[in-house]
Amino acid sequence: MNYRHAYHAGNFADVLKHAVLQRMLVLMQRKEAPIAYLDSHAGVGLYDLHGVEAGKTGEWHSGIGRLPAQSNSPLLADYLAQVAALNSEGERRYYPGSPELARRVLREYDSLQLCEKHPQDFALLKDNMRHDERVICHQRDGWQIGKALLPTEEKRALLLIDPPFEAEDEFSQAVNTLQEAIGRMRQVVVAIWYPIKAEKQLKGFYQALANSGAPKLLRAELWVRPADNAASLNGSGLAIVNPPWPLEEELRTGLPELLKLLDQGGGGYRLDWLIEEPVLAPTPGA
Ligand code: SAM
């Protein structure tokens, strides 16, 4: 386990993932019923963009560093407000990872369960979450999250699957975990984050998602450079099962807005259904 997210926090891929995550959690709160948030690969929760690791790569400059302090876009407004709330005015120093973002958005009666395997990152995560009684941190293999934690007591849940993709089999592990999750809780909202290097490398993954048996599955992608170079991270995507309404409509306007802010030349986006919601045939005589 070499991957440490502190080197990459706030990069353009984090921006897409976290803006959409934030939005999904807000939209799910249109109903009052409690929500369980589950994170299979949680990281440390909170990042210092002025720290040694972030300074070594400088990746955040072409991510959150390019975004304005605020925006009217539904996709970006609340996300940017959360980032701003962590920092003094005009400063971009602290950046919320998925656990911190979820913690800030969720209500008093919602719950969070976070898995992180790396011993050092787990200790940091636990420390960062220590004041919040709604949060349970597990030092365990995130690939077991479906078996271990689903179904949740809450009828509504969002599972983020966000592995480091250091190994080739993580694509199939992500699909297996998704299948395990919907097998145990059909209505669960699941988001798999994935890297886009060369688009053609993803064919098998798309196929597996399309055959996963999910009730419906939305694909949202954004690349900041042409997606044709297997050696570099050019973009990222989210495969979202059971997306809350009206996420699709918001992404239709939000993705082009985000692209304008993040494009490095030759970027693009895509939004389509890999599994469409079945259209119910009209009842005869109705
Ligand atoms: N979700 C985080 C966020 O958005 O802020 C970032 C997560 S980072 C991409 C992936 C994390 O997964 C790393 O912190 C790594 O230590 C952890 N990890 C790697 N393999 C794991 C496994 N099998 N189970 C749980 N965590 C794992």
TrEMBL record:
It catalyses: adenosine(2030) in 23S rRNA + S-adenosyl-L-methionine = N(6)-methyladenosine(2030) in 23S rRNA + S-adenosyl-L-homocysteine + H(+). GO terms for molecular function: 23S rRNA (adenine(2030)-N(6))-methyltransferase activity; RNA binding. The record marks 3 as: Interaction with substrate rRNA. It comes from the Bacteria. S-adenosyl-L-methionine binds at residues 18, 41, 98, 116, 141-142, 162. One of its GO terms (biological process) is rRNA base methylation. It holds the Pfam family RsmJ. GO terms for cellular component: cytosol. Keywords: Methyltransferase, RNA-binding, rRNA processing, S-adenosyl-L-methionine, Transferase. It is an enzyme of class 2 (transferase). Its EC number is 2.1.1.266. Gene3D superfamilies: Vaccinia Virus protein VP39. The active site is at residue 162. PANTHER family: RIBOSOMAL RNA LARGE SUBUNIT METHYLTRANSFERASE J. Monomer. Specifically methylates the adenine in position 2030 of 23S rRNA. Belongs to the RlmJ family. This is Ribosomal RNA large subunit methyltransferase J. It comes from Atopomonas hussainii. The lineage of its organism: Bacteria, Pseudomonadati, Pseudomonadota, Gammaproteobacteria, Pseudomonadales. The gene is rlmJ.
